[in-house]
Amino acid sequence: MQIETRECSIKFYYEKVLGKPVEKYYMPRPRKKRKLPEVLSEEEVTKISKQINNLKHKCIIYLIYPVGYASCGIKAHRSSSP
Fold first, then answer.
1. Residue 27 sits in which domain range?
2. 3-state helix, strand, coil in the chain (%, to 5)
């Protein structure tokens, strides 16, 4: 059952069954879990790049990998520093 459905059913119960006045009900919602993206190893990147024939696409792969790897390191450093 979805969270909104549960909220509506609780609201219906309080207002229609118990006869309580219409109010706004605060119900805390659970936080969504954040998943970290998968990071490719150097071997995987070279394996992918060997299959690419277009030079422009190969250059893009070689440029994107170190930038993404560096930004992950920066984010990890920021979260660990006080």
1. 3-80
2. 60, 0, 40
Chain position carrying tokens 């490719």:
40
Question: For the chain, what is the radius of gyration of the CA atoms?
Answer: 25
CA distance 26 to 7: 9
DSSP, collapsed to helix, strand or coil, labels residue 41 as coil
CA distance 69 to 39: 8
Split at pLDDT 50, 70, 90, the class of 1 is low
Q: Residue 49 in contact with residue 58, Cβ under 8 Å? A: yes
| Tally of domains within the chain | 1
- pLDDT-based confidence at 65, cuts 50/70/90? confident
Token pair of 43 as six digits = 């071997």
What CA–CA distance (Å, rounded) separates 63 from 67? 7
pLDDT in tens, 36-50: 767 777 788 778 878
